[in-house]
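Course assignment 3, question 2. Fill in each field.
Student: A.L.
Task: Predict the tertiary structure for the chain below.
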Amino acid sequence: MRITRVLGAAALMLGLAVTPAAADSTPSPTDSASTEGDAPTLAGTSFRAATEVEQGQTATASGSTGDYLYWSFPADAGQRPTVKTTVKLPESHAAQTWQIDVYDGLRRRQSCQYGAQTRTAAADGSSVELACTLRTVRAWSETWANDPLPGTYYVRLTVVGLTTADLGLPVSTEMRVESKDIGGSAAVDGSLAEPLVPGIAVKSEAEDDSSEQSSSAVLSAIEPEDGWSSGWWSDRWVWTAVGGALAALAGVGGYTLTRGSGRPTRVPTGS
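Answer field:
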């Protein structure tokens, strides 16, 4: 009877520990209609003029072959962003090679884990699709490392192989960023004081000075839906709780098995 109660209590503890993780790991549905309705239809021509795009939006832009097109998006710790772009080409053109590059908040070029970062469109091809999946964004890193950190990321799209006759031909582009939440396996012991976003130093000064001139100097207005470092909860907490519950259960079970059934009935009591 005692063992049954112990097992029931342990099962209840495990259920309480796993329930928050299950709720946290389930992707929440997004309102695609409202998200796409606010999607930008222009692209910047430099880092400072990069068009801000939220994750889950499909940004569109028109341009010419030879232009540099820039977008920016926020990425938080624990996310693994995937950037996808589609370039729709004119009806008649020679072979063209297009490329996307992704830079972090310090404008360091980030390598792609996988994806077709550079592709060549055949002559008279209708479109070319590119993709780049970054490494998981870390909450903290050594200063000498090139690890992706929380903050603003920049996407640059351009053509790198082009004949002179095709220079300036009109093209239309689509860019979309989606992330996968990696969870506790990517957690590290440490975090940045502030995300790497443009104007963060000016923003700190603006908090002390309430003048309109100081506050208007902040360059970046995008951040994750739940705010920066919204992924503080991870399945590492769950497995810690599960490990503690199992250890407690093993201790109680071992004690119950080794203590025996009590004092033997045939042993005479002392006088």
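Instructor remarks: The longest strand covers residues 170-181. The two ends are 33 Å apart (CA to CA).
Grade: pending
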